[in-house]
Amino acid sequence: MSIISRVITFDNPAFNAYVTYGSVLVLKMMIMAPLTVKQRLTRGVPISPEDSNVYKGKQLRKSHEDVDRVRRAHLNDLENIPIFFLVAFAYLLTDPDPTTALNLFRVFTLARFIHTFVYAIVVVPQPARGLAWVTGFLITGYMAVKAICHFKTF
Amino acid sequence: MSIISRVITFDNPAFNAYVTYGSVLVLKMMIMAPLTVKQRLTRGVPISPEDSNVYKGKQLRKSHEDVDRVRRAHLNDLENIPIFFLVAFAYLLTDPDPTTALNLFRVFTLARFIHTFVYAIVVVPQPARGLAWVTGFLITGYMAVKAICHFKTF
Amino acid sequence: MSIISRVITFDNPAFNAYVTYGSVLVLKMMIMAPLTVKQRLTRGVPISPEDSNVYKGKQLRKSHEDVDRVRRAHLNDLENIPIFFLVAFAYLLTDPDPTTALNLFRVFTLARFIHTFVYAIVVVPQPARGLAWVTGFLITGYMAVKAICHFKTF
Protein backbone atom coordinates (compact mmCIF):
# COMPACT_ATOMS: atom_id res chain seq x y z
CA MET A 1 0.00 0.00 0.00
CA SER A 2 1.39 3.42 -0.96
CA ILE A 3 2.16 5.99 1.74
CA ILE A 4 -0.50 8.32 0.35
CA SER A 5 -3.31 5.80 0.55
CA ARG A 6 -2.15 5.02 4.10
CA VAL A 7 -2.23 8.72 5.07
CA ILE A 8 -5.24 10.01 3.13
CA THR A 9 -7.78 7.59 4.51
CA PHE A 10 -10.58 7.64 7.01
CA ASP A 11 -8.66 4.94 8.93
CA ASN A 12 -6.07 7.59 9.82
CA PRO A 13 -7.32 9.58 12.84
CA ALA A 14 -4.92 12.42 11.94
CA PHE A 15 -6.62 12.81 8.56
CA ASN A 16 -10.09 12.78 10.13
CA ALA A 17 -8.94 15.38 12.65
CA TYR A 18 -7.51 17.50 9.85
CA VAL A 19 -10.87 17.60 8.10
CA THR A 20 -12.74 18.18 11.36
CA TYR A 21 -10.56 21.00 12.69
CA GLY A 22 -10.24 22.51 9.23
CA SER A 23 -14.03 22.76 9.03
CA VAL A 24 -14.20 24.14 12.58
CA LEU A 25 -11.69 26.84 11.60
CA VAL A 26 -13.77 27.71 8.54
CA LEU A 27 -16.82 28.17 10.78
CA LYS A 28 -14.68 30.24 13.17
CA MET A 29 -13.63 32.54 10.31
CA MET A 30 -17.22 32.78 9.07
CA ILE A 31 -18.33 34.10 12.47
CA MET A 32 -16.15 37.19 11.90
CA ALA A 33 -18.56 38.40 9.19
CA PRO A 34 -21.78 38.59 11.30
CA LEU A 35 -19.63 39.96 14.14
CA THR A 36 -18.49 42.77 11.82
CA VAL A 37 -22.05 43.41 10.61
CA LYS A 38 -23.25 43.62 14.22
CA GLN A 39 -20.54 46.18 15.10
CA ARG A 40 -21.26 48.16 11.94
CA LEU A 41 -24.98 48.34 12.71
CA THR A 42 -24.45 49.15 16.41
CA ARG A 43 -21.84 51.82 15.74
CA GLY A 44 -23.43 53.19 12.56
CA VAL A 45 -20.49 52.50 10.24
CA PRO A 46 -21.77 51.35 6.80
CA ILE A 47 -19.02 49.84 4.64
CA SER A 48 -20.50 51.19 1.40
CA PRO A 49 -22.74 54.19 0.58
CA GLU A 50 -25.54 52.02 -0.87
CA ASP A 51 -25.91 50.30 2.52
CA SER A 52 -27.13 53.45 4.25
CA ASN A 53 -30.82 52.53 3.78
CA VAL A 54 -30.23 49.68 6.26
CA TYR A 55 -29.09 52.24 8.86
CA LYS A 56 -32.12 54.54 8.79
CA GLY A 57 -32.44 56.79 11.82
CA LYS A 58 -28.88 56.01 12.95
CA GLN A 59 -26.14 58.56 13.25
CA LEU A 60 -23.53 57.48 10.71
CA ARG A 61 -19.75 57.48 11.23
CA LYS A 62 -16.78 56.98 8.92
CA SER A 63 -15.16 54.50 11.30
CA HIS A 64 -15.23 53.21 14.86
CA GLU A 65 -12.58 51.39 16.88
CA ASP A 66 -14.93 48.44 17.62
CA VAL A 67 -15.52 47.88 13.89
CA ASP A 68 -11.80 48.20 13.09
CA ARG A 69 -11.00 45.74 15.87
CA VAL A 70 -13.20 42.97 14.42
CA ARG A 71 -11.81 43.72 10.96
CA ARG A 72 -8.24 43.40 12.23
CA ALA A 73 -9.05 40.07 13.89
CA HIS A 74 -10.65 38.86 10.65
CA LEU A 75 -7.66 39.96 8.57
CA ASN A 76 -5.32 38.20 10.99
CA ASP A 77 -7.37 35.02 10.47
CA LEU A 78 -7.01 35.44 6.70
CA GLU A 79 -3.26 35.81 7.11
CA ASN A 80 -2.89 32.72 9.28
CA ILE A 81 -5.64 30.13 8.81
CA PRO A 82 -5.61 29.36 5.05
CA ILE A 83 -1.82 28.85 5.03
CA PHE A 84 -2.17 26.57 8.06
CA PHE A 85 -4.80 24.57 6.20
CA LEU A 86 -2.53 24.17 3.18
CA VAL A 87 0.64 23.36 5.06
CA ALA A 88 -1.13 21.00 7.44
CA PHE A 89 -2.00 18.87 4.42
CA ALA A 90 1.66 18.84 3.35
CA TYR A 91 2.56 17.93 6.94
CA LEU A 92 0.05 15.04 6.94
CA LEU A 93 1.77 13.66 3.85
CA THR A 94 5.01 13.34 5.86
CA ASP A 95 3.18 10.56 7.77
CA PRO A 96 3.55 12.14 11.22
CA ASP A 97 2.68 10.44 14.48
CA PRO A 98 -1.17 10.70 14.58
CA THR A 99 -1.28 11.81 18.24
CA THR A 100 1.24 14.59 17.61
CA ALA A 101 -0.70 15.74 14.53
CA LEU A 102 -4.01 15.66 16.41
CA ASN A 103 -2.54 17.72 19.26
CA LEU A 104 -1.05 20.29 16.90
CA PHE A 105 -4.46 20.72 15.21
CA ARG A 106 -6.12 21.08 18.63
CA VAL A 107 -3.64 23.65 19.92
CA PHE A 108 -3.69 25.67 16.70
CA THR A 109 -7.50 25.80 16.68
CA LEU A 110 -7.66 26.76 20.35
CA ALA A 111 -4.98 29.43 19.87
CA ARG A 112 -6.94 31.02 17.00
CA PHE A 113 -10.15 31.09 19.06
CA ILE A 114 -8.27 32.72 21.94
CA HIS A 115 -6.68 35.21 19.52
CA THR A 116 -10.06 36.40 18.29
CA PHE A 117 -11.54 36.42 21.79
CA VAL A 118 -8.87 38.65 23.34
CA TYR A 119 -8.68 40.84 20.21
CA ALA A 120 -12.30 41.48 19.31
CA ILE A 121 -14.65 40.20 22.04
CA VAL A 122 -13.09 41.06 25.41
CA VAL A 123 -9.97 43.15 24.97
CA VAL A 124 -7.19 41.68 27.13
CA PRO A 125 -3.83 43.49 27.50
CA GLN A 126 -0.77 42.09 25.79
CA PRO A 127 0.91 39.59 25.75
CA ALA A 128 -2.41 37.65 25.57
CA ARG A 129 -2.96 38.24 21.87
CA GLY A 130 0.73 37.98 21.06
CA LEU A 131 1.02 34.57 22.74
CA ALA A 132 -2.10 33.23 21.00
CA TRP A 133 -0.79 34.46 17.66
CA VAL A 134 2.75 33.10 18.12
CA THR A 135 1.41 29.66 19.09
CA GLY A 136 -0.39 29.32 15.77
CA PHE A 137 2.57 30.83 13.94
CA LEU A 138 5.09 28.35 15.39
CA ILE A 139 2.84 25.36 14.62
CA THR A 140 2.43 26.51 11.00
CA GLY A 141 6.17 27.08 10.69
CA TYR A 142 7.01 23.68 12.18
CA MET A 143 4.71 21.96 9.68
CA ALA A 144 6.15 23.88 6.73
CA VAL A 145 9.74 23.07 7.71
CA LYS A 146 8.90 19.39 8.31
CA ALA A 147 7.21 19.15 4.90
CA ILE A 148 10.11 20.86 3.10
CA CYS A 149 12.71 18.59 4.78
CA HIS A 150 10.61 15.56 3.85
CA PHE A 151 9.89 16.37 0.20
CA LYS A 152 12.82 18.65 -0.76
CA THR A 153 12.10 18.56 -4.52
CA PHE A 154 13.37 21.92 -5.70
CA MET B 1 -12.78 0.16 -2.85
CA SER B 2 -12.23 2.79 -0.15
CA ILE B 3 -14.60 5.74 0.15
CA ILE B 4 -11.80 8.17 -0.70
CA SER B 5 -10.90 6.48 -3.99
CA ARG B 6 -14.62 6.44 -4.80
CA VAL B 7 -14.94 10.18 -4.11
CA ILE B 8 -11.61 11.55 -5.35
CA THR B 9 -11.85 10.22 -8.87
CA PHE B 10 -12.59 11.56 -12.32
CA ASP B 11 -15.53 9.11 -12.41
CA ASN B 12 -17.25 11.26 -9.77
CA PRO B 13 -18.97 14.22 -11.50
CA ALA B 14 -19.04 16.09 -8.16
CA PHE B 15 -15.24 15.93 -7.99
CA ASN B 16 -14.86 17.11 -11.59
CA ALA B 17 -17.28 19.95 -10.88
CA TYR B 18 -15.31 20.87 -7.75
CA VAL B 19 -12.12 21.24 -9.77
CA THR B 20 -13.91 23.09 -12.60
CA TYR B 21 -15.79 25.60 -10.43
CA GLY B 22 -12.78 25.99 -8.14
CA SER B 23 -10.69 27.04 -11.15
CA VAL B 24 -13.48 29.32 -12.40
CA LEU B 25 -13.54 31.02 -8.99
CA VAL B 26 -9.77 31.48 -9.10
CA LEU B 27 -10.12 33.20 -12.49
CA LYS B 28 -12.96 35.29 -11.06
CA MET B 29 -10.75 36.45 -8.17
CA MET B 30 -7.88 37.15 -10.56
CA ILE B 31 -10.07 39.56 -12.55
CA MET B 32 -10.27 41.80 -9.47
CA ALA B 33 -6.59 42.74 -9.90
CA PRO B 34 -6.77 44.21 -13.46
CA LEU B 35 -10.11 45.78 -12.47
CA THR B 36 -8.33 47.54 -9.58
CA VAL B 37 -5.44 48.60 -11.83
CA LYS B 38 -7.91 50.04 -14.34
CA GLN B 39 -9.70 52.05 -11.64
CA ARG B 40 -6.38 53.24 -10.18
CA LEU B 41 -5.15 54.44 -13.59
CA THR B 42 -8.49 56.08 -14.51
CA ARG B 43 -8.88 57.81 -11.15
CA GLY B 44 -5.19 58.61 -10.65
CA VAL B 45 -4.75 56.69 -7.40
CA PRO B 46 -1.31 54.97 -7.32
CA ILE B 47 -1.00 52.35 -4.57
CA SER B 48 2.67 53.07 -3.95
CA PRO B 49 4.88 56.18 -4.47
CA GLU B 50 7.25 54.39 -6.90
CA ASP B 51 4.29 53.77 -9.25
CA SER B 52 3.83 57.46 -10.01
CA ASN B 53 5.95 57.30 -13.20
CA VAL B 54 3.15 55.16 -14.71
CA TYR B 55 0.67 58.00 -14.07
CA LYS B 56 2.54 60.81 -15.84
CA GLY B 57 0.39 63.81 -16.69
CA LYS B 58 -2.45 62.59 -14.46
CA GLN B 59 -3.73 64.43 -11.44
CA LEU B 60 -3.00 62.13 -8.51
CA ARG B 61 -5.34 61.45 -5.60
CA LYS B 62 -4.92 59.71 -2.24
CA SER B 63 -8.06 57.65 -2.75
CA HIS B 64 -11.25 57.40 -4.79
CA GLU B 65 -14.53 55.65 -4.04
CA ASP B 66 -14.37 53.61 -7.29
CA VAL B 67 -10.96 52.22 -6.33
CA ASP B 68 -12.07 51.46 -2.76
CA ARG B 69 -15.17 49.72 -4.11
CA VAL B 70 -13.18 47.23 -6.21
CA ARG B 71 -10.81 46.70 -3.28
CA ARG B 72 -13.72 45.94 -0.95
CA ALA B 73 -15.17 43.45 -3.46
CA HIS B 74 -11.74 41.80 -3.77
CA LEU B 75 -11.29 41.59 0.01
CA ASN B 76 -14.76 40.08 0.32
CA ASP B 77 -13.70 37.42 -2.19
CA LEU B 78 -10.59 36.73 -0.11
CA GLU B 79 -12.75 36.34 2.98
CA ASN B 80 -15.20 33.95 1.34
CA ILE B 81 -13.75 32.01 -1.60
CA PRO B 82 -10.63 30.28 -0.19
CA ILE B 83 -12.58 28.95 2.82
CA PHE B 84 -15.29 27.70 0.46
CA PHE B 85 -12.64 25.90 -1.57
CA LEU B 86 -11.24 24.22 1.52
CA VAL B 87 -14.53 23.25 3.09
CA ALA B 88 -15.99 22.07 -0.22
CA PHE B 89 -13.23 19.47 -0.30
CA ALA B 90 -14.14 18.33 3.21
CA TYR B 91 -17.77 18.25 2.09
CA LEU B 92 -16.89 16.09 -0.96
CA LEU B 93 -15.26 13.59 1.40
CA THR B 94 -18.63 13.09 3.12
CA ASP B 95 -19.72 11.41 -0.15
CA PRO B 96 -22.68 13.73 -0.84
CA ASP B 97 -25.25 13.21 -3.56
CA PRO B 98 -23.40 14.34 -6.73
CA THR B 99 -26.33 16.39 -8.05
CA THR B 100 -26.68 18.27 -4.77
CA ALA B 101 -22.95 18.93 -4.68
CA LEU B 102 -22.93 20.11 -8.29
CA ASN B 103 -25.83 22.49 -7.64
CA LEU B 104 -24.22 23.92 -4.52
CA PHE B 105 -21.03 24.63 -6.51
CA ARG B 106 -23.09 26.25 -9.27
CA VAL B 107 -25.10 28.46 -6.91
CA PHE B 108 -22.04 29.50 -4.89
CA THR B 109 -20.13 30.47 -8.02
CA LEU B 110 -23.08 32.40 -9.45
CA ALA B 111 -23.66 34.17 -6.14
CA ARG B 112 -20.02 35.32 -6.00
CA PHE B 113 -20.18 36.66 -9.57
CA ILE B 114 -23.38 38.54 -8.71
CA HIS B 115 -21.78 39.87 -5.51
CA THR B 116 -18.90 41.41 -7.43
CA PHE B 117 -21.15 42.70 -10.19
CA VAL B 118 -23.54 44.61 -7.91
CA TYR B 119 -20.66 45.76 -5.66
CA ALA B 120 -18.02 46.94 -8.10
CA ILE B 121 -19.33 46.99 -11.67
CA VAL B 122 -22.89 48.35 -11.58
CA VAL B 123 -23.80 49.51 -8.09
CA VAL B 124 -27.23 48.08 -7.18
CA PRO B 125 -28.99 49.13 -3.94
CA GLN B 126 -29.23 46.68 -1.08
CA PRO B 127 -30.37 43.95 -0.49
CA ALA B 128 -28.80 42.82 -3.82
CA ARG B 129 -25.27 42.51 -2.45
CA GLY B 130 -26.46 41.22 0.91
CA LEU B 131 -28.46 38.41 -0.71
CA ALA B 132 -25.58 37.39 -2.98
CA TRP B 133 -23.23 37.36 -0.02
CA VAL B 134 -25.53 35.41 2.30
CA THR B 135 -26.14 32.75 -0.37
CA GLY B 136 -22.44 31.94 -0.53
CA PHE B 137 -22.15 32.21 3.24
CA LEU B 138 -24.96 29.71 3.90
CA ILE B 139 -23.56 27.20 1.39
CA THR B 140 -20.11 27.40 3.00
CA GLY B 141 -21.63 27.03 6.46
CA TYR B 142 -23.75 24.04 5.39
CA MET B 143 -20.68 22.27 4.00
CA ALA B 144 -18.63 22.96 7.13
CA VAL B 145 -21.36 21.65 9.46
CA LYS B 146 -21.92 18.56 7.29
CA ALA B 147 -18.17 17.80 7.29
CA ILE B 148 -17.86 18.27 11.06
CA CYS B 149 -20.88 16.03 11.76
CA HIS B 150 -19.43 13.39 9.44
CA PHE B 151 -15.83 13.34 10.70
CA LYS B 152 -16.17 14.56 14.30
CA THR B 153 -12.62 13.62 15.33
CA PHE B 154 -11.80 16.19 17.99
CA MET C 1 -3.97 2.42 -12.30
CA SER C 2 -6.22 5.48 -12.14
CA ILE C 3 -4.93 8.87 -13.26
CA ILE C 4 -5.30 10.26 -9.77
CA SER C 5 -3.16 7.61 -8.12
CA ARG C 6 -0.60 8.18 -10.87
CA VAL C 7 -0.56 11.95 -10.23
CA ILE C 8 -0.96 12.15 -6.46
CA THR C 9 1.99 10.00 -5.54
CA PHE C 10 5.49 10.50 -4.21
CA ASP C 11 6.72 8.84 -7.43
CA ASN C 12 5.60 11.96 -9.34
CA PRO C 13 8.30 14.65 -9.04
CA ALA C 14 5.72 17.32 -9.96
CA PHE C 15 3.66 16.36 -6.91
CA ASN C 16 6.70 16.41 -4.63
CA ALA C 17 7.66 19.80 -6.04
CA TYR C 18 4.10 21.07 -5.46
CA VAL C 19 4.29 20.16 -1.78
CA THR C 20 7.83 21.53 -1.45
CA TYR C 21 7.22 24.87 -3.14
CA GLY C 22 3.82 25.20 -1.50
CA SER C 23 5.49 24.90 1.90
CA VAL C 24 8.25 27.32 0.87
CA LEU C 25 5.57 29.84 -0.14
CA VAL C 26 3.84 29.39 3.22
CA LEU C 27 7.13 30.18 4.98
CA LYS C 28 7.59 33.16 2.66
CA MET C 29 4.16 34.52 3.62
CA MET C 30 4.87 33.89 7.30
CA ILE C 31 7.97 36.10 7.12
CA MET C 32 5.70 39.08 6.34
CA ALA C 33 4.37 39.02 9.90
CA PRO C 34 7.68 39.48 11.80
CA LEU C 35 8.69 41.97 9.09
CA THR C 36 5.56 43.99 9.87
CA VAL C 37 6.17 43.74 13.62
CA LYS C 38 9.75 44.95 13.13
CA GLN C 39 8.56 47.98 11.11
CA ARG C 40 5.82 48.72 13.64
CA LEU C 41 8.28 48.66 16.54
CA THR C 42 10.94 50.72 14.69
CA ARG C 43 8.46 53.32 13.45
CA GLY C 44 6.30 53.36 16.58
CA VAL C 45 3.05 52.35 14.89
CA PRO C 46 1.06 49.99 17.19
CA ILE C 47 -1.78 48.20 15.38
CA SER C 48 -4.06 48.23 18.44
CA PRO C 49 -4.30 50.50 21.51
CA GLU C 50 -3.65 47.64 23.97
CA ASP C 51 -0.22 47.09 22.34
CA SER C 52 1.13 50.44 23.47
CA ASN C 53 2.78 48.95 26.59
CA VAL C 54 5.18 47.17 24.22
CA TYR C 55 6.22 50.55 22.80
CA LYS C 56 7.19 52.30 26.05
CA GLY C 57 9.38 55.36 25.61
CA LYS C 58 8.71 55.46 21.85
CA GLN C 59 7.00 58.27 20.05
CA LEU C 60 3.83 56.75 18.62
CA ARG C 61 2.39 57.42 15.17
CA LYS C 62 -0.90 56.58 13.48
CA SER C 63 0.84 55.23 10.40
CA HIS C 64 4.14 55.17 8.55
CA GLU C 65 4.92 54.46 4.89
CA ASP C 66 7.37 51.64 5.80
CA VAL C 67 4.67 49.83 7.77
CA ASP C 68 2.08 50.34 5.02
CA ARG C 69 4.55 49.03 2.46
CA VAL C 70 5.06 45.69 4.23
CA ARG C 71 1.29 45.44 4.77
CA ARG C 72 0.65 46.00 1.06
CA ALA C 73 3.19 43.33 0.12
CA HIS C 74 1.55 40.93 2.59
CA LEU C 75 -1.93 41.65 1.24
CA ASN C 76 -0.68 41.09 -2.29
CA ASP C 77 0.63 37.69 -1.16
CA LEU C 78 -2.80 36.90 0.31
CA GLU C 79 -4.42 37.85 -2.99
CA ASN C 80 -2.09 35.72 -5.10
CA ILE C 81 -0.53 32.79 -3.23
CA PRO C 82 -3.53 30.84 -1.80
CA ILE C 83 -5.31 30.84 -5.18
CA PHE C 84 -2.09 29.64 -6.83
CA PHE C 85 -1.90 26.83 -4.30
CA LEU C 86 -5.46 25.77 -5.04
CA VAL C 87 -5.29 26.02 -8.80
CA ALA C 88 -1.87 24.35 -8.96
CA PHE C 89 -3.49 21.28 -7.47
CA ALA C 90 -6.21 21.35 -10.14
CA TYR C 91 -3.45 21.78 -12.71
CA LEU C 92 -1.54 18.76 -11.34
CA LEU C 93 -4.69 16.67 -11.83
CA THR C 94 -4.56 17.42 -15.57
CA ASP C 95 -1.42 15.22 -15.59
CA PRO C 96 0.95 17.87 -16.99
CA ASP C 97 4.50 17.23 -18.12
CA PRO C 98 6.43 17.03 -14.81
CA THR C 99 9.29 19.23 -16.00
CA THR C 100 6.90 21.96 -17.14
CA ALA C 101 5.03 21.79 -13.83
CA LEU C 102 8.26 21.91 -11.85
CA ASN C 103 9.47 24.95 -13.79
CA LEU C 104 6.17 26.77 -13.35
CA PHE C 105 6.35 26.20 -9.58
CA ARG C 106 9.96 27.43 -9.56
CA VAL C 107 9.23 30.58 -11.55
CA PHE C 108 6.09 31.42 -9.55
CA THR C 109 7.95 31.05 -6.25
CA LEU C 110 10.90 33.13 -7.46
CA ALA C 111 8.56 35.82 -8.82
CA ARG C 112 6.77 36.12 -5.48
CA PHE C 113 10.08 36.46 -3.59
CA ILE C 114 11.18 39.16 -6.03
CA HIS C 115 7.81 40.90 -5.67
CA THR C 116 8.21 41.18 -1.92
CA PHE C 117 11.86 42.17 -2.17
CA VAL C 118 11.33 45.10 -4.54
CA TYR C 119 8.12 46.14 -2.74
CA ALA C 120 9.03 45.99 0.92
CA ILE C 121 12.76 45.39 1.39
CA VAL C 122 14.63 47.50 -1.19
CA VAL C 123 12.24 49.72 -3.12
CA VAL C 124 12.97 49.38 -6.83
CA PRO C 125 11.21 51.63 -9.39
CA GLN C 126 8.56 50.16 -11.65
CA PRO C 127 8.28 48.02 -13.74
CA ALA C 128 10.21 45.72 -11.35
CA ARG C 129 7.24 44.99 -9.08
CA GLY C 130 4.78 44.94 -11.96
CA LEU C 131 6.82 42.33 -13.85
CA ALA C 132 7.22 40.12 -10.79
CA TRP C 133 3.49 40.35 -10.11
CA VAL C 134 2.41 39.68 -13.70
CA THR C 135 4.68 36.60 -13.90
CA GLY C 136 2.86 34.97 -11.01
CA PHE C 137 -0.48 36.17 -12.33
CA LEU C 138 0.04 34.63 -15.78
CA ILE C 139 1.17 31.29 -14.34
CA THR C 140 -1.90 31.13 -12.08
CA GLY C 141 -4.16 32.04 -15.00
CA TYR C 142 -2.57 29.44 -17.28
CA MET C 143 -3.13 26.73 -14.68
CA ALA C 144 -6.75 27.76 -14.12
CA VAL C 145 -7.56 27.75 -17.83
CA LYS C 146 -5.80 24.41 -18.36
CA ALA C 147 -7.76 22.85 -15.48
CA ILE C 148 -11.09 24.23 -16.71
CA CYS C 149 -10.47 22.98 -20.28
CA HIS C 150 -9.54 19.57 -18.90
CA PHE C 151 -12.42 19.05 -16.45
CA LYS C 152 -15.18 21.23 -17.93
CA THR C 153 -17.95 19.85 -15.69
CA PHE C 154 -20.31 22.76 -15.34
TrEMBL record, chains A, B, C:
EC number of this enzyme: 2.5.1.18
Annotated compartments: Endoplasmic reticulum membrane; Mitochondrion outer membrane
Record bears the keyword Chaperone: no
SUPFAM superfamilies for this protein: MAPEG domain-like
Catalytic activity entry: RX + glutathione = an S-substituted glutathione + a halide anion + H(+)
Assigned keywords, A-Z: Acetylation, Endoplasmic reticulum, Membrane, Mitochondrion, Mitochondrion outer membrane, Transferase, Transmembrane, Transmembrane helix
Any one Gene Ontology molecular-function term assigned to this protein's record: glutathione transferase activity
Enzyme class label: transferase
Pfam families associated with the record: MAPEG (PF01124)
Main location: endoplasmic reticulum
Gene3D superfamilies reported for this sequence: Membrane associated eicosanoid/glutathione metabolism-like domain (1.20.120.550)
Presence of keyword Transmembrane helix: yes
One cellular component (GO) term of this entry: endoplasmic reticulum membrane
Coiled-coil region: none
Record's bilayer topology term: Multi-pass membrane protein
InterPro entries xrefs: MAPEG-like_dom_sf, Membr-assoc_MAPEG, MGST1-like
Transmembrane parts of this sequence: 18-37, 104-124, 130-149
Family recorded in the similarity comment: Belongs to the MAPEG family.
Quaternary state and interactors: Homotrimer; The trimer binds only one molecule of glutathione.
Job of this protein: Conjugation of reduced glutathione to a wide number of exogenous and endogenous hydrophobic electrophiles.
Protein name (database record): Microsomal glutathione S-transferase 1
Organism, scientific name: Ignelater luminosus (Cucubano)
